[in-house]
């Protein structure tokens, strides 16, 4: 155990991302049971130090964000972080809600994650518009944007995105992530170019299982196993 955990949620989703690993690979993520998830975190933290805890989907962790659901979600994320224990040093919220409404902002302001990671939707928003995030919602929190590298990416576009991030007063970090194909093989578009710029202008994330995945009352060490029987 490396102390890295990721809660995979399924509260439903907007299903508007142009590339979705859940839909493309047919992953069967169970509907989130908040109490079962909290019990799993408590049990696991008693035996293995949790140093890193992220929330991602499965379905966007911030969907749908209307009251009273928004307040329940705030309480859930805060309690999950509390139960992770004293060894926890870093937390992340992964979302693709760029045009944040009041209830989404409520989660950011009341939970206070170490980092908010935005999964970009480049076909629905131009790169410059998508990066126009309201700074007041992220005071004291790092903001990272991550792009899945689809086959239409070029070095020129990668550089243009990097330039936009460098000139942005809200976004702190930029990542490009390898795309997973429907058969779980990896797409290597612009791989050599992205590796050359890794830890310089951006981070290049090669697909791997870096975390232990928390899904209700179960733990998985491989993302592709979620919803299957071969779990731990």
Describe the structure.
This protein is of the alpha/beta class. It has a single domain (4-149, 206-225), classed as Aldolase class I (TIM Barrel, Alpha-Beta Barrel). It contains seven helices and nine strands; from the N terminus they run βααβαβαβαβαβαβββ. The protein has helices spanning 21-25, 34-47, 69-83, 102-111, 127-130, 155-166, 191-196; strands spanning 4-9, 52-57, 90-95, 115-119, 142-149, 173-178, 203-205, 212-215, 218-220. It has a nine-stranded mixed β-sheet. Helix 6 links the parallel strand 5 and strand 6 (173-178). Helix 2 runs parallel beside helix 3 (69-83) and helix 3 runs parallel beside helix 4. The longest helix has 15 residues, at 69-83. The protein is globular and about 45 Å long. The mean pLDDT is 87. This is Radical SAM protein. It comes from Bifidobacterium longum subsp. longum. One of its GO terms (molecular function) is catalytic activity.
Characteristics of this structure?
alpha/beta, 9-stranded mixed β-sheet, 232 residues, TIM Barrel
**N-to-C series of helices and strands:** EHHEHEHEHEHEHEEE
| Radius of gyration over all CA atoms, rounded | 17 Å
**Secondary structure tally, helices:** 7
**N- to C-terminal separation?**
13 Å
Q: Largest sheet at a glance?
A: 9 strands, mixed
**Secondary structure category:** alpha/beta
Question: Helix coverage percent of residues?
Answer: 25-40%
Strand content: 15-25%
Just name the CATH architecture: Alpha-Beta Barrel
- Mean of pLDDT: 87
In the CATH scheme, the class would be Alpha Beta
CATH topology: TIM Barrel
């Amino acid at each position: 155990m490396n102390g890295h955990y990721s809660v995979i949620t399924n509260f439903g989703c907007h299903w508007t991302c142009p590339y979705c690993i859940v839909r493309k690979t047919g992953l069967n993520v169970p509907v989130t049971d908040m109490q079962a998830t909290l019990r799993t975190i408590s049990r696991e933290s008693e035996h293995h130090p949790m140093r890193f805890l992220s929330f991602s989907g499965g379905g966007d962790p911030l969907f749908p964000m209307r009251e009273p659901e928004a307040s329940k979600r705030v309480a859930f994320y805060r309690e999950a972080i509390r139960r992770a224990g004293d060894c926890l040093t870093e937390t992340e919220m992964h979302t693709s809600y760029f045009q944040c409404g009041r209830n989404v902002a409520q989660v950011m302001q009341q939970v206070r994650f170490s980092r908010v990671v935005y999964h970009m939707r480049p076909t629905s928003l131009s790169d410059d518009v998508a990066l126009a995030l309201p700074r007041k919602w992220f005071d004291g929190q790092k903001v990272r944007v991550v792009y899945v590298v689809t086959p239409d990416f070029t070095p020129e576009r990668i550089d243009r995105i990097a330039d936009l991030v460098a000139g942005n007063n809200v976004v702190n970090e930029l990542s490009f992530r390898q795309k997973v194909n429907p058969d779980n093989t990896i797409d290597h578009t612009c791989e050599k170019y992205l590796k050359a710029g890794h830890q310089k202008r951006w981070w290049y994330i090669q697909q791997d299982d870096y975390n232990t995945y928390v899904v209700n009352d179960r733990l998985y060490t491989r993302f592709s196993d979620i919803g299957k029987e071969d779990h731990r």
